[in-house]
Amino acid sequence: MTAEEIYSQMKRVFAEKTGFEMEDTADLAVRLYAAAAQLETLYAYCDWALGQSFPQTAAGAYLDEHAALRGLTRAAGSKASGSVRFTVEAARSQAVTIPAGTVCTTAGLVRYATTADAVIAAGSLYADAAAEAEEAGAAGNAAAGTVCLTPQMPAGVAACGNPQPFAGGADAEDDESLRARVLASYARLPNGANAAFYETRAMSHAGVGGVSVLPRVNGVGTVGVVVATASGEADAALLEEIRADLEAVREIAVDVSVRAPEIVTVDLTAELLPADNVAFDDAKTAAEAALGGFFTGARLGKAVYLSQLTSLIYAGGLVKNVRFTAPAADVAVAAGQLPRLGSVTITEGV
Question: For 146-185, how does the pLDDT look when each residue is reduced to its tens digit (9 = 90+)?
């Protein structure tokens, strides 16, 4: 209820009880309106509190609490990773060192830092240094050739660039995705012996972005658990951590194996027509970033539909039309496979 509605009710009750119509300018009327304003705030708070009481309507930290009751946690964002190539103008007689922490950026000032020292050996023209985005999120995904600036070029180095895309950057799981998992946990109750049990248990480990459970993967009495991180493949340490956990809680006489997914590389070729008053390069960069953010560990076992990719690019609002010429059809993905973005070729359409 609004303050005006509450105030009107107060005046009406006052008139019924006293037989006197109170003027809005009366001292008591001012007091009643002040009380009505506070009551409006209380009504709003009650509505908000009611919404946070159920996973269907809770948001933010309160939805996290509902997830915790189901043994679920919100998937954290991940940083895009790749490599930066540092080049000298001519081969030198002495090695050139690029220290870890060297920062390179895109034209849009998305920053990437090298994660280890790199050395351009004597007589060589370049060296590649592993790097990652400074901030987690899909915005860190970058097409090849776009990480080409640096605030301070290392001594002796003439240029930098990324021959391959930066990929694997993903935003933290949003409320709607987490809500869907919470509600699904009620619909698919884990009972210690079904696929939902193994999936929920594996997803509870930090860093896990997707899980597929393969019943009877090696015959009767076997279960395969395929694990992907938000950025893609899980490392050996995480796989062993999950394997040990599942080994301790598995049902009797069941053999549980845990592995990383089989990678399905998806190369994309598209024609893009930018929106009016939008430069093609700007539309292309935004499209490449959107595509890079789509291919995360959450895609484990899920087909890649061209309609999804098209909608993703349109959502940026910078294109008038887009048409994928490769692949020619949707990409089928098995339960234990993870689609990974390969090369991206975008040309200007007409």
Answer: 999 999 999 999 999 999 888 878 888 899 989 998 998 8
Q: Which of 106, 165, 114, 131 is nearest to 295 (CA)?
A: 165
Residue with tokens 């097409």: 143
Residue 198 within a domain: yes
Same domain, 93 and 156: yes
Report if residue 136 sits inside a domain: yes
pLDDT band of 192, cuts 50, 70, 90: low
Would you list the DSSP string of 277-310?
Answer: T--HHHHHHHHHHHHHHH-SGGGTT--B-HHHHH
184 domain residue, yes or no: no
Q: Can you tell me the distance from the alpha carbon of 294 to that of 316, in angstroms, rounded to the nearest whole number?
A: 13
Residue where the block lists tokens 């908000």: 48
Give yes or no: residues 279 and 329 share one domain.
yes
Q: How many domains does one find in the chain? A: 4
Q: In which domain, by residue range, is 271 found?
A: 262-348
**Element containing residue 7 per DSSP (H, E):** helix 3-18
